[in-house]
Design brief:
Blueprint (H helix, E strand, L loop, with lengths): L5 H16 L3 H7 L4 H9 L12 H12 L3 H21 L2 H9 L16
GO molecular function, one term: flavin adenine dinucleotide binding
Pfam families: Acyl-CoA_dh_N (PF02771)
Protein name: Acyl-CoA dehydrogenase domain-containing protein
Length: 119
């Protein structure tokens, strides 16, 4: 069993947030602006989808929390990419697709349908 990577991961994410997220957080959250370059940088640093790289769920959520402290929108982008899109693909489909999603080279999306609303 791998020991927790929490201290190193959290410190790296805090540094990333300070350097890349804080300067754009207000624009992302207020203007509904998609920070493509920052998402790519998250992929380069392996923090866009930490579980893809073997980080346990607890430590991945601590990483998400650090981003959410500054930008809820960017945290939602990270969580949707990692958990809603890539987690099922990683489990059931081609690993190349999962690798591209984890790196930020491909951006996933998630759609929710409420069938009961069609009445």
């Amino acid at each position: 069993m791998v020991d927790s990577v929490e201290p190193l991961l959290v410190e790296n994410v805090r540094e990333f947030v300070r350097k890349y997220v804080q300067p754009i957080a207000e624009k992302v959250d207020r203007e509904d602006w998609y920070p493509k370059e920052v998402v790519l940088k998250m992929g380069e640093l392996d923090i866009l989808d930490p579980p893809h790289y073997g980080v346990d769920l607890h430590d991945a959520m601590l990483s998400l929390l650090e981003i959410a402290k500054v930008s809820g929108s960017l945290a939602l982008i990270q969580d949707a990419q990692a958990e809603l899109v890539n987690a099922p693909l990683r489990k059931y489909l081609d690993s190349r697709i999962s690798d591209d999603l984890a790196s930020g080279k491909v951006i996933g999306s998630f759609a929710l349908s409420e069938l009961w609303l069609r009445r």
